[in-house]
Amino acid sequence: MDFRVRPNSAARGEYVLHAEALSVRKGFDTVLQSKSVVINRSILKRWIDVLFASLAMVVLAPVGLLVALAIKIESPGPVFFWQLRYGRNRSSFYICKFRSMTVTESQGDFTQASRNDVRVTRVGRFLRRTSLDELPQLYNVLRGEMSLVGPRPHAIAMDDAFAEVISNFHDRHLVRPGLTGLAQVSGYRGPTEALEQIEYRVRHDRLYISKWSVFLDMKIMVQTVFTLAGPNAL
Question: DSSP assignment, residue 135?
Fold first, then answer.
């Protein structure tokens, strides 16, 4: 007898889901792995990313031009700062920011700027307080390297160091990193000056993945706007 296997769409879909789950590196929480597959395959989340990022780039283009001009006037050097970061499944990509320091960090050095760091320019301090230095990351969102909402990406050297002392740290790499996230609107925005702050961030990042929904993304984006526009923003 001659047996032939005829693939169907349901089987192909199941195979793709299984293959994507297997592609996730070992060591991740298995429950979060399953939820991350849903998040990463969400067409609606991606459409929202592209739509909002495109609109924001058009609306905020004049602001971006003024920021670029201020950076060039105050100090010599490039307008943009590029740094290697971990993305989904720890694949690396170059994040883009407005330069806020007099001397850009080398690729291997991850000395983080402190509150009164002398390397931060006057324009840079304003950009950091208002998070305007993050605007160029809308480009990373359009490229699919980031999402509007997700765990905030750190410098690769920082991630590697934190992963050695914090359990489940790499779970935050199950999804695309974000411009903002649950940790940031919960009060853990800005420099990470203590290990405890990173641990809280990781807990909120893992909670975000486990509780993800489009409604939660919209809620975080609205909270981010109010946080940046609040009395403590400047």
Answer: T
